[in-house]
Specification:
mainly alpha, about 200 residues, globular
């Protein structure tokens, strides 16, 4: 079970600290309304990811094991690529861009995440195949993986909101360090998924 807990929490950690639409939304809402009113938005992935997860798992369940291995390998390659992109960002950090205004409600936060391509890619190529593999071993392992992923994501998003709200924005050194850690985690998870698909 430990490997599934590490996979779920590690992927959530790396996904959460990468800049994206949801993070931009959270920054804009903290700036507009404060961290207390923005904090419930950390739960928005629990609402938006549900339909994506159900569709991904139903479709993956119709595929033969060989096709699932191919998808898992594609997920590993995707994570390695994202790790490489994060490493390049770590080496040459971009100047912070302007922050636009964002949605105002929890449901709109969920809509931002629903329209974000990252959950679809994550469930199709990483979480979906991993959940199927875990379920084949034991149903509890699949539940543990999903719980570790969303538990870590909610905690990380809440921490991000608090950091932005109480300390304004992270300094450039802290941001760069987080990007570096993200690059290592993403690449490590990608290599693990590739190795698992090959040796399965």
């Amino acid at each position: 079970m430990l490997k599934y807990l590490l996979l779920g929490s590690g992927y959530a950690f790396a996904a959460t600290i990468q800049p994206g639409p949801l993070q931009a939304f959270l920054v804009s809402r903290v700036a507009a309304t404060g961290w207390r009113r923005t904090l419930p938005a950390c739960l928005s992935p629990l609402l938006s990811d549900g339909p994506i997860a159900v569709v991904a798992l139903l479709l993956l369940g119709q595929l033969p094991p060989a096709a699932q291995n191919v998808l898992q390998s594609a997920g590993g390659l995707l994570l390695v690529y994202l790790g490489w992109a994060a490493f390049r960002q770590w080496r040459s950090p971009a100047e912070p861009g302007s922050r636009g205004s964002g949605p105002r409600t929890f449901l709109q936060a969920a809509l931002v995440n629903l329209l974000n391509p990252n959950p679809y890619l994550g469930w199709a190529f990483v979480l979906g195949p991993a959940v199927h593999t875990a379920w084949a071993e034991h149903a509890g392992y699949a539940v543990a993986l999903i719980a570790a992923f969303y538990g870590t994501m909610v905690v990380m998003l809440a921490g991000f909101i608090l950091l932005v709200g109480t300390a304004r924005f992270l300094g450039s050194r802290s941001q760069r360090a987080l990007v570096g850690v993200s690059a290592v985690v993403l690449a490590g998870l990608g290599i693990y998924l590739l190795a698992s698909a090959v040796w399965q």
